[in-house]
Amino acid sequence: MVRIRRRTSLLAFLGGLLLVLVPAPAEAKGKAKVEVAAVDWKSPKEAEKAREKRLSTEVRRAAQRSAKSLDFGPPGRVEISFVVVDVGIEKLGDIVRVSCTLVGRLKGGGRARSKLRFGGKPEDLKKLEKQVVVAATDGVMVRLSEMARARPTEG
Predict the structure, then answer these.
(1) Backbone angles phi, psi at 71, to 5 degrees
(2) Model pLDDT for residues 87-109, shown as the tens digit of each residue
(3) Distance of CA 142 to the CA centre of its chain
(4) pTM to 2 decimal places
């Protein structure tokens, strides 16, 4: 019993000593806060409003998801806007091709464009649309993060 108390108190003492002697880590590196300002359509179609709204939401979500894992440079605010140029559907017999052209802009300068085309089964059309839009958004976000890091720092 006495041995266990001695050992426990010795470990507690060494742990406390370790906390005191090990220097604190340098100031944590902050991340830039990425804000998606807008997701617009180049030529909105009245008949496809629900589809455009759904895909705009997917672009916004994918951009926020990508921003969490990307480095946009020094701490601050980075504002990004997107223009969905086209999300086209092409039916070829028993397959469907979905293409997406997306342009992203950094506030203060910088543009990136992604154009992708995926194919799949007609019954998986919504899933395929989401997949191609998310992939295009990820590509644009990677390029915009490179541009944001390459900007000269203010101050």
Answers:
(1) -100, 115
(2) 999 999 999 999 999 999 999 88
(3) 8
(4) 0.77
Question: How many of the other CB atoms lie within 10 Å of CB of 132?
Answer: 25
22 DSSP assignment: S
Chain-centre distance of CA 146, in angstroms? 13
The string of pLDDT tens digits covering residues 118-146 is 999 999 999 999 999 999 999 999 999 99
Q: Is 109 helix (H, G, I), strand (E, B) or coil?
A: coil
Q: What residues contact 149, with CB distance under 8 A and at least 6 apart?
A: 71, 72, 73
Residue for token digits 């010795």? 10
Beta strands in the chain (DSSP E): 32-41, 76-92, 95-106, 111-120
* CATH 2.70.98, applies to 32-150: no
